[in-house]
Amino acid sequence: MVISVCEKLFICYTSMGGRRNFLLVNMAVVLLNAGLGILVNLAAFTNRTGIRERYLTLPVDDGNLSMSNTPLAPGEIIVGAYGLLDISGNYSCHTFVWPAQDWTLITGESRICLTTQASVDRLFWVAWQAESWSGPLSVSVFAPGTEFAVASAMISYLRRCFPSVQERVSFHLVHTRSRPPLPTPHPHVHQLNCDDPEESNKILMGLRDEKEPKERRYPQNLLRNLARRTCPCDYTLTIDVDMLPVSFMAENLTGFLNSISAIPCKKCAYVVPVYELDNTVTYSPSDKMELLRLLLKGHARRFHMKVYARNQGNSHLESWEAEPGPDDTGAYKVMYNITTYEEFWEPILILPYTAPLFDERFIGYGFTRSSQVYELHRRGFKFQVLDQAFLTHRGFQTTSSYQPSRFAQIEINKVRYQMFKRDLHARLGLAPPKAMIMPNLRQQLPLLIGRRSQASKPHAAIKGVPLRKDKKTN
User: CA 388, CA 394: separation in Å to the nearest integer?
Assistant: First the structure.
């Protein structure tokens, strides 16, 4: 078509003659070719069977990784070789495998990001976290081998059933280098109830290859750091996946952090108290007063109070458990400073992005949090307890659910903890630390098992709520 038109124009030119007509003819040819190019491109990209339309109408099934914003096609498996290896070379990390739909917007508006990590059998907790936390949520998932198929299906379920998950939660993946992601050997179509994420998670665990050995080396701190590094907010709150924030915590924390932004404290760690709820409690307390009532009735207690008192001991929560005064507005503020330090303390902390990360040498249970707190202490951080803010954990913790392997991991991490302290003291120019004296937990295992029945009994109700004691805050 273009050649025939050019021939006609050339005939016109030869009949008319002259340089001026030659230039006009060439200009007409250029414009004609440009116009034809535009028409061809418009036809390609406005066709209803075009690439964009096919992508938006992809079928959704158990193999679909994401509803949108995913670099993978439905049912596609992540290539292990594309991951970023950790410092040990044993684990491979993949960021934003399932990114939040509004991630850029939500992280730009929030001062703080909630971060957590999970194995594939506990992903259902993310639905409840996203319902109670209105800010950005960054989740690292450990999914070696066919556990990837469980993660893929469960995250697809969460994103379809809970708009808050699709809009505000970004998921990242970690697997062992020796066990890259694999498809399920049991491809089935499941009917899942959007109102019961816990039961749906149990059903989807059937996608895992039962012949595949269970991975015991769970890299908690690597997962925590990955979730934290992928959230571009000024502050992070790193919690366990089965901990739930109190209502409106994201909004109140953003308000508190904005109020101190004029004179920011670069070495302040804000402590958020954590409480266990008895299984008879079917709801999360909506505010501090409701939590205090549960404490009075014996339906709530401090986290790990019976299992490991040092976990929250140095937080001095007896001072936090004071009834608010009549003039209390409910705004988040520093209630009191913690001037003491007890080793092996494991508070949940709000930290600036510049704070030290978790030490990734710790695998499994033991010293994963307390090592970071020790480093914060040695680096001169101040610990301040926030009023009104708190987290809850379902069920009273006992040793009855602990596997013997857990105590073995603690023993191994005890050695790593001593190495960690020596390395830290050397980096900071401090004197070598004293040798750590702790009882051998494996020797105590029969005694701990014998006390299981006593640990599971309900504790006596608290007789009264102490009056608030005035504390000076900085």
Answer: 19
